[in-house]
Amino acid sequence: MGFPAGIVIAGAILMSAAAVLCSFPSTLVLERAFPADHRVPLSQLRARDRVRHDRMLQSTNGVADFPVEGTFDPFRVGLYYTKLQLGSPPRDYYVQIDTGSDVLWVSCGSCNGCPETSGLPIQLNSFDPGSSSTSQFISCTDRRCSLGAQSSDSACSTQNNQCSYTFQYGDGSGTSGYYVSDLLHLQTILEGSMTQNSSASIVFGCSTLQTGDLTKSDRAVDGIFGFGQQGMSVISQLASQGVAPNVFSHCLRGDANGGGILVIGEIVEPNIVYSPLVPSQPHYNLNLQSISVNGQALPIDPTVFATSSNRGTIVDSGTTLAYLAAEAYDPFINAITTTVSQSVRPVVSNGNQCYLITSSMNDIFPQVALNFAGGASMILRPQDYLIQQSSVGGAARWCIGLQKIQGSGITILGDLVLKDRIFVYDLGGQRIGWANYDCSLSVNVSATSRTGKSEYVNAGQLSDSTSLHSSRYQLIPVLLILYMLGNFLFL
Q1: Is the separation of the CB atoms in 188 and 480 below 8 Å?
Q2: How far is Cα 192 from Cα 147, in angstroms, rounded to an integer?
Q3: Rounded to a whole number, what is the distance in angstroms from the first to the last CA of the chain?
Q4: Going by C-beta distance under 8 Å and a sequence separation of 6 or more, which residues neighbour residue 329?
Q5: What is the CA 323 to chain-centroid distance, rounded?
Q6: Is 182 labeled as catalytic in the residue annotation?
Q7: What is the pLDDT of residues 163-201, one digit of tens each?
Q8: HSE on the CB side for 325, CA within 13 Å?
């Protein structure tokens, strides 16, 4: 992707992760968060995301209830994470939700550099293959080892015939380890209120070495849950086994409570619009065609957004902010500033375009439309492209949250614009859909019953007995996974 390396990260960063690209030669590195209530300049938030962008990883019918915690707010938690259970007997692991990478990996026993404590209200665990009766090492001759080769992260040890991996990041941090297979446990709800425990064997990474920012304990979790579309992703593995549909959805709450919904399956909502995925890409690339401000298309050459070896628009929940291709950034800033110039005082703060306002931003700032192939538009409210930095003399200072990666043609839709929306990743249909939604509400999820008829499961029916309750952040977790056995009917 050609993102610059050598970025200095200010503040305490939780963790980095990256994605090796087939067509994009560089990376997206997972950054994270600053202490609660600690305001920092947008330049520091942008720097955190730029480190991530140095390299991207290419690297029974029922509904399963998993908790989700975390917030979009970069000044508090700055990430969304969930708890899953692995092994026999099952143990809990807290992992970050990331649509920009493929591999699920967790810290392993005897790990060198892995954090032992976290600033988040969670207890960290390390995975010990020897303590699980169902764990198996993946050998170099195992066909599943070749799945990692798709994302250029697999390697083989000639000494022990063990399938290993190495992820190296642009800031000098990284992780390495080996692949294992074990059971992923799901608690499913069948035909209403009946519950049943389910499990499936999956391959995931066991991290034995972490360096650089991955060693930070500020916002440490046990690993990364990659929701990419390559063969090593959990979504692809479950779909290939026929135990889950090749579709997942999320709805991430953007308010202070945080949390949200994550579904392996399809959230059904009448206002969802779809745009086709760009084919043969290792990430979730969409064909962005134009940007409009107050209904007026900006003067941007459409080729700026075309997908190529160093261009394109990527949907990535592992990025906190959002990023525009360099050629689109100035027209966007100019249009916003011109629209609000009579009502606010534009200021530049540490290189970021900001505005001092004394009234509601929703009364001043315009709607922005991202227009995609297939006629689908994503309507951004002011809170979807602005971040409040501080107050100056009684005036609130709001800064543009959409950033520019200097010299890059990549556009990245991170949590800033993904929050407060349903997103459906229909991998079977090779499309992504979205709709504005209050993610604190329940959702309907389509399912195929034992009789073969399509049914709907209301996510509000699920028990929250397994939810993570955090008095520290007062988060309301609602992570739900639709775990499908048998045929799945896309509606």
Answers
A1: no
A2: 37
A3: 36
A4: 402, 403, 404
A5: 15
A6: no
A7: 998 876 545 667 889 999 999 987 655 555 455 678 889
A8: 24
User: Of these residues, 49, 54, 73, 98, which one is catalytic?
Assistant: 98
Instruction: Give the CA angle between residues 483, 65, 445 to the nearest 5°.
Output: 55
pLDDT reading at 461 higher than 60: no
Please report, for residues 9, 36, 76, 182, the alpha-carbon distance to residue 391 in angstroms, rounded to integers and kept in the order given: 25, 17, 18, 51
Count CB-CB contacts under 10 A for residue 433. 23
- Please count the residues of the chain: 491
Cα–Cα distance for residue pair 481/182, rounded to 1 Å: 19
Residue 98 bears catalytic tag: yes
Q: Which residues pair with 370 in a beta bridge?
A: 291, 378
Return phi, psi of residue 439, to 5°: -75, 0
In sequence order, which residues have a C-beta less than 8 Å from that of residue 35 and are 6 or more positions away? 12, 119, 218
Q: pLDDT, tens digit, for every residue of 264-285?
A: 888 889 999 999 999 999 889 9
How far apart are alpha carbons 158 and 375 in whole angstroms? 52
Question: Considering 316, 384, 415, 426, which one is annotated as catalytic?
Answer: 316
Q: Please give the backbone phi and psi of residue 2, each rounded to the nearest 5 degrees, phi first.
A: 75, 20
The model scores a pTM over 0.70: yes
Of 97, 83, 77, the closest CA to residue 474 belongs to 77
pLDDT of the residue at 109: 85
Q: Note the maximum CA span of the chain.
A: 70
- In the block, residue with structure tokens 């043609």: 409
Task: Say whether 168 sits in a helix, a strand or coil.
Answer: strand
